[in-house]
Amino acid sequence: MRIAILSTFYPLRGGIAQYGGALYNALEAEGHQVKAFTFSRQYPDFLFPGKSQYVTESDSTDVIESEELLDSINPLSYISTANAIKKFAPDVLITQFWMSFFGPSCGTVAKLVGQQCKVISILHNVIAHEGRFFDKPFTKYFLNQHHGFVTMSSAVEKDLRKYTTTLPSLERPHPLYDHFGEIEDKVATRKKLGIATNKKTLLFFGFIREYKGLDLLIKAFDLLDDSYQLVIAGEVYGSFDEYQALIDENQNKENIFIFNQYIADQEVGQYFSVADVCVLPYRSATQSGVTAVALHYEVPLIATDVGGLKELVVSGQTGEIVSKADVDLLHQTLLHFFNNDLNVYHEHIRALKKDMSWSSFAKYLTEFINSIN
């Protein structure tokens, strides 16, 4: 099968680019002819909340050869990108959707290419975590240009059905990332990061945004004793000041370690290798790529009962679910987790990993594509 993928790819950084790269490699490994198309400009600089949209020389990123064509705010590039994809003559175009801002650009490319081949989209989100006035019309426009969809949780599937009840979809969980390297020695890596080797270690990982509830975790950590430590690893979108204020007044502030920076691929493994548990105190969610990384490293998760998180975070098996985003409930769940036998969580995670490979996902995806008329 000839497959075109329109997504963020190298040299762009972030979870969507990582997903696109892993999907590209998995489909190519299955014997398909795959070609990647990406953005010449993803965001105007003034709209991007982080420090950089691009990988740096120090990043050990999976380099995917792609054509950098699509400018998100230049309609002429929508046409030229569609023409380049048509020239490749794919049997299917796969897009990714994670933010309504890209509805006009990616949606128009899908519309133009869809006159020639099947077009499906992998939906990371349908309804935005942080709403904007243009979300509904941009999302509706984008979805209307596709012949089918892949969702990675029942929450996203439910949101999709608010826009269309007839188009087919495949629901499969987020495959586990396996390109960040092997698990490192816990004690040695804790020493390397300058944290205690003998404390129960909580990890908050990934881009820091308001809906992810880091403030709730810092407050819950204030209720724990000195046998715990908290590692915060990820780049803040916006200002870190409110979190720093909570840390400064925290009775356990000496046990909070902050790595407020973009975490390069080759550095990801060390943060999960030191963790006893990864905490997702989200106020809202669909699914999270962080769960896929944590499960790859066999790190249990504690997550709030939002979106599709509990589809992979199963209480007593792969982690624990907190019924809502609440400081006291999160605190009690942390205590409950560490009172259990952690080996039980690890055994369940190892069993789950077998069905969540990228190879398995690629097979389900191609079967779905072939089923679309």
Automatic annotation (TrEMBL):
GO terms for molecular function: glycosyltransferase activity. This is Glycosyltransferase. The keyword Transferase applies. Residues 14-163 form the Glycosyltransferase subfamily 4-like N-terminal domain. It comes from the Bacteria. Keywords: Transferase. Coiled coil: none annotated. The keyword DNA-binding does not apply. Residues 188-346 form the Glycosyl transferase family domain. It holds the Pfam family Glyco_transf_4.
